[in-house]
Design brief:
- The protein has a two-stranded antiparallel sheet with strand order 1-2. It has a two-stranded antiparallel sheet with strand order 3-4.
- By secondary structure, the chain is mostly helical.
- It is about 55% helix and about 5% strand.
- It is elongated.
- It folds into two domains: about 35 residues, no CATH class; about 150 residues, no CATH class.
């Protein structure tokens, strides 16, 4: 009924929300779970949360993949928009005029826009796909889920991605380092989007 999850660098157990949704009203007021609750508990697979170091390795892999993707998108755009021909007219030994300056600014703006869009779609589409993971997370056996262990929507994955803007604002990368010591190994953007990162084995 449920997928099996297994992780490293994280606390094991059943996601509280998942546990509650499965057990429903099986608990008595006195705390005696009873046979029904014991049977339901046995049906739920144990989970562990993906730890900081695995997530860091996935981040490094993803940055390599995203960098290649940006290059593959940006280079054709430069030539399709005519920027390539204009850039070829700029000579290092000559002083840049207003036109050259605006060209450089336009190129930087184009690169930043492509980088933003590629990075967003890469994370949001892949984490809401059947993989539930980017290439980096897939490589190290991590998946992104909601608080009940279910696949996230594109909107939630988008919220998680842009939540990193707030995470980046926290000094000394503490927003990311939180994934190493919070109860569910959540970084700040995970908490904002209501997500957890787990390790899965089939």
């Amino acid at each position: 009924m449920f997928q099996m999850w297994r992780g490293v660098g994280g606390r094991s157990g059943v996601l509280p929300e998942l546990r509650a949704s499965v057990f429903g009203g099986c608990y008595s007021a006195g705390g005696d779970d009873g046979p029904a609750a014991a049977s339901a508990y046995a049906a739920v697979q144990r989970v562990e949360y993906g730890g900081f170091w695995l997530r860091l390795l996935a981040y490094i892999i993803d940055n390599v993949v995203i960098g290649l993707g940006i290059v593959l998108v940006l280079v054709p755009l430069i030539f399709l928009t005519g920027l390539g021909a204009l850039l070829s007219q700029i000579h290092p030994e000559e002083e840049l005029g207003d036109a050259g300056l605006f060209l450089i600014i336009g190129l930087i703006f184009l690169a930043a826009t492509v980088g933003l869009v590629v990075t967003w779609l890469y994370h949001a589409l892949m984490e809401s796909s059947e993989w539930q993971a980017t290439v980096g997370k897939k490589a190290v056996g991590l998946v992104v889920t909601d608080m009940t262990g279910q696949r996230v929507s594109f909107a939630r994955a988008t919220g998680r991605h842009f939540g990193k803007v707030i995470t980046n604002m926290v000094p000394m990368l503490i927003g990311y380092i939180m994934a190493g010591f919070t109860e569910r190994k959540q970084a700040l953007h995970d908490m904002i989007a209501g997500c957890v990162v787990l390790r899965r084995t089939s």
